[in-house]
Design a protein that fits this description.
Blueprint lengths: L9 H30 L12 E2 L16 H14 L1 H4 L38 H10 L15 H11 L5 H4 L16 H15 L1 H4 L38 H10 L13 H14 L12 E2 L12
Antiparallel strand pairs: 1-2
Helix pairs in contact: 2-5, 4-5, 7-10, 9-10
């Protein structure tokens, strides 16, 4: 307890009393913030700071989805509100309590722009695509791998409910998945060399000649939110959001990343695998700042004073 001392000048006493009050308010605010976030929709504070093993989007295992009925939809809504709304918002508009503190921002499902999918650019993802993203999460972001937390049926239930948050699913069908069957004649050395030549013709404008994300168009890029975005630095495996397997990289080349400046490329299946082989080979090089042992950070960034 702060007591007024007869030995202290009145002005000094008021100065320390004011700062004591400010400190107490700051500590109270931090306590309420942490307590509130931890209790909100089951979203633990520490989860966003946990390192995790790199996940592969294309490697997610799944069985046949359960029948889509009202019970599945009710379950999906409950699971979504308890686990997803803190970031994505109750109505899926990317405006949850955490949204303004995350880089990149949580997906706004209502806009119908989905980055990770097997379908062509500009088309809706399949149910399997949504299930994979929910299950694997997104590397180097705050989106966790729910396959380690939620049973498979609950993840399918979230897929069912998530589609109700975007009217596009009621108005059009999902795109037809792009099937990339690898060539039977896989010669790594040849594929890397041929992929390098194709890369130099199509990718250096953004990713740079050596794949460091430093091409002449790299500056002043924006995503669909209008937020700054940088081309991928291929020397950092931990930053590959979909995953760092050959299949993950090939699918990105074929489908692009909707909502970002990354377009899809119609290069032919063999050339797509060649480019993917070259890109994958770059991450074998050591670079300062890359995550060791196949681990990536959760990637929570802080936004201060940004308005939308």
């Amino acid at each position: 307890m702060l007591l007024k001392s007869s030995h202290l000048p009145h002005s000094v006493y008021l100065h320390w009393k004011r700062w004591f009050f400010i400190l107490a308010m700051v500590l109270l605010y931090l306590f309420l913030l942490v307590s509130g976030v931890k209790g909100q929709q089951g979203m633990p504070w520490h989860w966003m700071h946990m390192p995790r093993a790199l996940q592969s989007w294309t490697s997610v295992k799944m069985s046949s989805p359960p029948a889509a009925d009202s019970e599945l939809l009710i379950t999906g809504k409950k699971v979504y509100l308890n686990n997803c709304a803190a970031c994505h918002g109750d109505m899926g508009k990317g405006d949850g309590r955490w949204a303004n503190y995350l880089v990149p921002r949580p997906r706004n499902f209502s806009r119908g722009i989905f980055r990770f999918k097997s379908t062509p650019s500009g088309t809706l993802p399949t149910d399997n695509d949504l299930f994979r993203t929910i299950s694997a999460g997104i590397n180097a972001t705050a989106m966790p791998s729910w396959q380690f937390v939620l049973p498979e049926k609950e993840r399918w239930a979230v897929v069912s409910y998530l589609k109700t948050l975007c009217k596009d699913f009621a108005e059009e069908a999902a795109g037809k998945p792009i099937i990339l069957t690898p060539s039977s004649d896989i010669t790594p050395g040849r594929m890397v060399q041929e992929g390098k030549e194709i890369f130099r013709k199509n990718c250096v404008e953004c990713h740079g000649p050596e794949g460091y994300g430093d091409g002449p168009s790299a500056l002043n890029m924006e995503d669909s939110f209008g937020d700054p975005i940088e081309p991928r630095n291929f020397h950092r495996a931990a930053e590959f959001k979909r995953g760092h397997t050959l299949a993950d990289i090939a699918l990105v080349v074929a489908t692009g990343n909707d909502g970002t400046p990354m377009p899809s490329f119609d290069l032919g299946k063999e050339n797509i695998w060649n480019v993917a082989s070259f890109v994958m080979s770059l991450a074998k090089e050591k670079e300062e700042g890359s995550e060791p042992n196949g681990y990536c950070p959760m990637g929570m960034g802080m936004r201060m004073g940004m308005k939308r």
